[in-house]
Amino acid sequence: MTESTSSAPVAVVTGATSGIGTEIARRLVADGFTVIVHGRSVERGERVAKELGAHFIAADLTVEGAADELVAEAMRVAGRLDVLVNNAAIDHTGPLLDTPQAEIRATFETNTFATIACLQAAGRVLREQGTGGAIINVTSRLASIGVPTMGIYSASKGAILALTTAAAVELAPLGIRVNAVAPGMTNTPLYADWVAEQDDPDATVRRVASAIPLQRIAEPSDVAAAVAYLASPDASYITGVSIPVDGGYLAT
Hints:
Layout: E1 10-13, H1 19-30, E2 34-39, H2 42-52, E3 55-58, H3 66-78, E4 83-86, H4 101-129, E5 133-138, H5 151-171, E6 176-183, H6 189-196, H7 201-210, H8 220-231, E7 242-245
Parallel strand pairs: 1-2, 1-4, 2-3, 4-5, 5-6, 6-7
Helix pairs in contact: 1-8, 3-4, 4-5
């Protein structure tokens, strides 16, 4: 990677080597951003970066200091930072009362602690630049509703929803906007794998869609569009909000 000399705004997207993260990176590139895609898989990351015309930085964000190193490397590559999209996350499903502590800690290490660390690292750089900026946390509809077997995941994302509002207030004097996007069920490879495991995949797809007012699940591009809006100057007076991208599910 070589240092960028472009005056384009710069965005770092964590967890951008598949699914929603890749689509967010794709949209931001299309919107004129210099994009840094992050992930743990070098093979996937380099492939996505080449496809999108982005830069790739590999990091395990659960390692202490990795978030600071990611942001420092992004600054070396691009020379500035304008937007952080906190998208990296892992899934967890299991009975609440029987979930081992190791699984709980692993879920929070990625979904909560690493997200906080990235927010801190990016926030310090934005503070030093003095130009403001945007931090967008990708949470989930499950941060706001209860679903059996999803309690640990919900808690990890709910913590980030609470962080979003608190950080928005605290960082507002610095011109740093902090918002969240909360996807509902989304057509990702993880969703496709889950559907394929069901006894009647077609019936499962119909059942899931029927519970959503707009009668379909989200596409990754739907989520990316909401992120792109919050990253844009059009959202310059918006901070501390969570936009549900769920087809009206939370409204029911």
